[in-house]
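All the exercises in this workshop are built on plain-text protein records. A learned vocabulary of local backbone shapes supplies the integers on the structure line. Once this layout is familiar, the rest of the handout is easier to follow. An example says more than a description, so a record of this kind follows:
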Amino acid sequence: MEYFTCLMDLAVHRGRLVPLFRRMDPPVTHLIYADDLLVFIQPSTEGLQTLAGIMEDLKSFSGLQMNRDKSRVYFSSRCSQKEERADVLGIARSDLPVRYLGVPLTVNYARDQDCHGLVEYVQRRVEGWQAAGLSFGGRIELIRSVISVVAHFWLQSILLPVATIRRVDRLCADFLWRGGMHAVSWEQLCRPRKEGGVGLRPLLEIREASALKLSWRFISGGSLWADWMHSRYVKQGNFWTCTPDNNHSVTFKTVLRHRGVFKSAIRRVMKDGSGTDLWRDPWIDRRSLLDIRGSPTHQEDRRGLTCSRIIRDGEWRPESYRYTEELGGFIMSAIIDPALPADRWIWEPTGASTGTGEFQFRSCYNLIRRTFPLCSDYEFVWCKGLARKTQLCVYKLLLGRLLTRDRLSSFGVPVPDPKCVLCCLEPESIKHIFFECNLAWQIWSEQSRVLGVCASGKCIGDIISVIRDSRGRGQDWFRTARVRLAASV
């Protein structure tokens, strides 16, 4: 396809083809992915005829022929004579949005109806016969390993509407509880295990982390998308001081909206400072000189200045510029590495180097996600060696969400006999069936004898406290005690 690229560039140079966006640098006339080709040109008759001729030349030179039955041509809403122009290429005309690699391509921001394909995929997964026989733990794994992965792929490609994300969350929650009563809220399940959840990730937070990833791609540069977006929206200005405009795309507005959070996760490393704006880039302890000193007295004092003004022979010289001579302590903390090919941003969300300084999605997600108090009892739920069904039973018991007969009655569910199914003497409740029933007492007494501690109490928290206080007996004993606790439950 290099031959095709050369023909396109030559046609643009000769003025026979006009890129769709003429003033962009670089001008994008086509994109190639695997055996797919996307062409972006002005729909003049001469340009379309030139494109048809280039396709014929490609066929003669390489033997590659366009499949016209699978190809489509799309025109903007302002274009006239669309059918006549499509006949020049001999390709059927169609309208956007269109699905490509499973994701909708649209002119504007993707709407909820444009993303119906994702909702349909989730519905097929949760309503299929393979999912019907899954246990509770199996349904969690299906959501984590299949449904969430596909949703993440969409979120890496487009900004999903919030309405679509909520529909997917609702489908997953109903599937998890088989359309019945939700014993634990979806919001609580979507927390790390250490914070009282089951390790699922909320899609709304993944959406925000994906937006931060876009910001990283933008400021890092080096890609066609980043160069094109910078040329179209930032132009000769500065990204950090750019203000949102009605002409900006939703994607670029999203990138601008996350600048504050993103600034706290990056640092600037200098080669010689020539690629860093002295006043506007946040290179001084994640702040810009404009943030620290305010605007200079004379506007010409900051016009076109870079950090090379205060770097000499690979060392900082803040005294060489009147607005930085008092900030020596802050400036000296900035890194100069003459071995770098150019000034660059490094990813450092926690203030500690990640080694390569490259972007890491996990640390990005941890940067924006909502945190909750640590659950000290999580190690008694998710200990190794336990079946997933047992772990989830202990998890629901710790939350008090097991559907015993007293809870079912409180929810208005008809219960023929409210008494305990084990002793048939007292009303069935979590406290009775696990700690007050005669059979429960026999089980806890046996565990106390084997473990050598008083493994009994009025709630599961009392027993966990006793085991935790006896942790000094060794890791093997502690591991055995946790497994016996879970097995008893």
